[in-house]
Amino acid sequence: MTEIDVRLERVSKFFGDVPAVDDLSLDIAEGEFFSLLGPSGCGKTTTLRMIGGFEDPSLGTVYLGGRDVTDLPPYRRDVNTVFQSYALFPHLDVFENVAFGLRRKKVGGKDIGQRVRDAMSLVDLEGFEKRKPSQMSGGQQQRVALARALVNRPKVLLLDEPLGALDLKLRKQMQLELKRIQEEVGITFIYVTHDQEEAMTMSDRLAVMRHGQIEQIGAPELVYESPATEFVAGFLGASNLLDGELVRNQSDVATVRLSTGQDIHFPASKVPSDIDTLVKVGVRPEKISIEVDEGEPPAGANWVSGLLRIATYIGVSHQYKVEGPGGTELTVYVQNLGAEEAPAPGRKVRLTWRPEHTFIVKPSAALSPEEEEE
Q1: CA 367 to CA 162: how far, in whole Å?
Q2: For the domain that residue 28 is a member of, what is the CATH number?
Q3: Going by C-beta distance under 8 Å and a sequence separation of 6 or more, which residues neighbour residue 350?
Q4: pLDDT at 329
Q5: Sequence-ordered alpha helix ranges (H) in the chain
Q6: Which domain holds residue 236?
Q7: Phi, psi of 52, deg, nearest 5
């Protein structure tokens, strides 16, 4: 049976009368790469800081390895934290930066040397021991910060948007490196980010947060393919959502009727147990085929008609913006195989997709300005 490394039990954090985290419960398994994902102000960093002991919960209990640590300071918790700012000591060389925590714990000199070398090897920085942080790139400094955190062999490593200051290419490279390192050391990683692709790339599971609460939790593929709410569908990747009414939910097939009177079908197993009659029916842009609206639609497929407004060539694919039912803007991604000529803007087109690629979600409250900027 998998051990639980981190447990939050009905944890809340108030700043004045404002709840930053609102009655949140969460279990994170030993050795798991777990991400807290959400827009600015959703409570993800506050949650991480309460796990690390940098913030005290207003209510609730924090457990590490089955031990109640709610009232313990950070240095008495078996965790280390990697921040976006690196927080390296500029006057110390790399070796001494990495060794700093070991020296504070009065680890023997021989053990320090071996453990620092092992940590440097883990992050691919052998030979950099005598350099100063100012002589290293941003990516190299981030690796030093990671080595310094891992050299203490914590039970849990907390990472607060550690790749945010890196350029896109280096960030993508470091995402793969972090996943490799986590699998190699087997330590529980809890990662905070607002970057959906980052969370999808690295996580075993992720939690999408909004307004201090978890909207959905699960494996990246599950949350992406079967979002629970309109907010999750829109935040984790791009989604096409149409207003409709759940008119039939039989044992194998469910039906949503759009405002235009058209029916959309999908497996009844994808209907959430707590869904109401008024819903949003959705499909991801890459699951859709687009063609000029001529002849009969394919049998058994879901489809809608629309007017192609914009066609954009982006190398590996074409991206289309279509004015769909009720004036809704729909997005389509089509892989660029070079086999067919792309439809031209101004044409009436038909969008088709398979019923099993359809999902329905509960409508969410309107996005705040901060969420719209994410």
Answers
A1: 26
A2: 3.40.50.300
A3: 290, 291, 292, 293, 297, 303, 304, 305, 306
A4: 95
A5: 44-52, 94-104, 109-122, 138-150, 168-185, 196-202, 220-225, 230-235, 369-373
A6: 230-373
A7: -80, -15
Domain count, the chain: 2
> Residue 241 sits in a domain of what CATH number?
2.40.50.100
The pLDDT value given to residue 206: 97
What lies within 8 Å, CB to CB, of 42 at 6+ separation is 209, 210, 211, 212
Tokens representing 362?
Answer: 């509960």
The span from the CA of 282 to the CA of 239, in Å, is 7
Same domain (yes/no): 98, 202: yes
Distance CA 309, CA 329 (A): 9
- Asked if 346 and 299 count as a contact pair (C-beta separation under 8 A), the reply is no
Q: How far is residue 4's CA from residue 52's CA, in Å, rounded to a whole number?
A: 16
Which residue bears the tokens 């639980």?
4
Q: Could you say which of 169, 204, 225 is where a domain stops?
A: 225
Look at residue 296 in the predicted model and tell me its pLDDT.
Answer: 85
The total number of residues written for the chain in this structure: 374
- Name the CA dihedral angle for 121, 123, 127, 128, rounded to a multiple of 10 degrees: -150
Phi, psi values for residue 36, rounded to 5°: -100, 115
Name the phi and psi angles at 43, rounded to 5.
105, 5
Residues 351, 354, 355, 360, CA torsion sign: negative
Domain identity same for 110 and 20: yes
CA distance 218 to 208: 9
Longest Cα pair distance anywhere in the chain, in angstroms? 79
Top-confidence range, 82-91, 121-130, 214-223: 214-223
Given a cut of 60, whether residue 373 has pLDDT beyond it is no
Q: Is the pTM of this model over 0.70?
A: yes
Cβ contact 141:133 at 8 Å: yes
* Rounded Cα gap, residues 193 and 36, in angstroms: 6
Same domain, 216 and 235: no
Q: Please, which residues bridge with residue 333 across strands?
A: 319
Q: How far apart are the first and last CA of the chain?
A: 38
Question: Do residues 146 and 42 share a domain?
Answer: yes
